[in-house]
């Protein structure tokens, strides 16, 4: 029987630990997320945000999202008590980004007509409500 077979020596264990540390260091992305975002998340949910959340927030900040918007949506999610706050906040921020990119595209004539009809409807509804409130006051 070979004594080295089926045994892991101290040198081998140390090498495995070093390899694991290198893997962990390389897999954790370096983020440029402001400290205020991390602190706000910790104060809001009582724990640190996961690294994927920080990495995605970092990308969003580089693409034009403001720090105040991130902080606002973190705070706004507190009353909702999401089970996965990172996913909840990111879904809101991604929807916000999508809306902004869609608004940059010119509207078609159909969209412009629809918006005009909607504005007219709102104006008519408001004037009817004002007339009804005036009639109630007179009675």
Short description:
The protein has 139 residues and is mostly helical.
Strand content: under 5%
What spatial form do the alpha-carbon principal axes imply?
Answer: elongated
Structural class: mainly alpha
> Could you estimate the helical fraction of the residues in percent?
over 70%
Q: How far from one another are the termini?
A: 107 Å
State the helix count. 6
Q: Biggest β-sheet, characterized?
A: none
Summarize the helix and strand pattern as letters: HHHHHH
Please report the total strand number as a whole number. Answer: 0
- Radius of gyration from the alpha-carbon trace, in angstroms: 28 Å
Low-pLDDT runs of 5+ residues are 25-29
Question: Taking all residues together, what is the mean pLDDT?
Answer: 80
Account of the 3D structure:
- It is a single chain.
- It is built from six helices and no strands.
- By secondary structure, the chain is mainly alpha-helical.
- Residues 25-29 have low confidence and may be disordered.
- The longest helix has 30 residues, at 109-138.
- α4 (67-76) packs across α5 (85-104).
- It is elongated and about 60 Å long.
- The protein is 73% helix and 0% strand.
- The protein has helices at 10-27, 35-45, 51-62, 67-76, 85-104, 109-138.
Which terms summarize this structure?
mainly alpha, elongated, 139 residues, 0% strand, 73% helix
Topology summary:
Elements lengths: L9 H18 L7 H11 L5 H12 L4 H10 L8 H20 L4 H30 L1
């Amino acid at each position: 029987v070979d004594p080295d077979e089926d045994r892991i020596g101290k040198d081998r264990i140390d090498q495995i630990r070093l390899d694991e540390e290198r893997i962990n260091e390389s897999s954790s992305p370096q983020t440029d997320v402001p400290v205020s975002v991390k602190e706000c998340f910790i104060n809001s949910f009582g724990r640190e945000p996961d690294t994927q959340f920080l990495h995605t927030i970092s990308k969003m900040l580089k693409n034009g999202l403001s720090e105040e918007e991130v902080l606002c949506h973190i705070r706004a999610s507190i009353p909702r008590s999401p089970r996965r706050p990172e996913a909840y906040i990111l879904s809101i921020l991604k929807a916000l980004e999508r809306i902004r990119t869609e608004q940059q595209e010119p509207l078609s004539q159909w969209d412009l007509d629809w918006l005009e009809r909607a504005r007219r409807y709102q104006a008519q509804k408001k004037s009817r409500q004002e007339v009804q409130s005036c009639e109630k006051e007179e009675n």
